[in-house]
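PROTEIN–LIGAND DATA SHEET

This sheet pairs a single protein chain with one bound small molecule, zinc ion, given as SMILES. Inputs appear in the order they were entered. The predicted three-dimensional arrangement of chain and ligand is reported afterwards as a C-alpha cell string under its own label.
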Amino acid sequence: MQELFSTLVEEDRPMTLAELAGSDRLADVCDQATVFRLLRRLADHGIVRRLGLHERAAYFTLVVPGKHSDYLICTKCGSIAAVDAPCPVHKLEEEIREKTGFRGLYHELEFFGVCPDCG
Ligand SMILES: [Zn+2]
Ligand SMILES: [Zn+2]
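PREDICTION REPORTED AS:
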C-alpha cells in the first residue's frame, strides 16, 4: 500500500493499472491483481480517484485537496492529458465557498473528445 502511494506521489500524474503494476517500486512486490485491489481500497477511502472511460483505459490519480488538474480524455484511444490552460472554475469555487461556508472545496473536470492522433 505504501509503495503504491509513493509511486503515485513521485510520478505526480494519472497512471494506468499496467503502468503502476510495472513501475520500479511495485513490479517486484505485487502482481497486477493485487495493485488493482489496493487501488480500489484507496479509492473507497477517497485517497485515489479513477479517471477515464472504462476499466481498460482507466487512470488513477491521487486526490490532493488544494491542488488539482482538469483533464482531457480521448474517447477513441483512452489517452489522458492534463488541460494546459488556466482553470475557469476557480472563481466559481470561491463563490460557492463564500455562499455555502464549505471548506476544503475542490473539483476536477474531465473533458471528453477525440484526440488529434485518432482524429
Ligand atoms: Zn485518441
Ligand atoms: Zn479546474
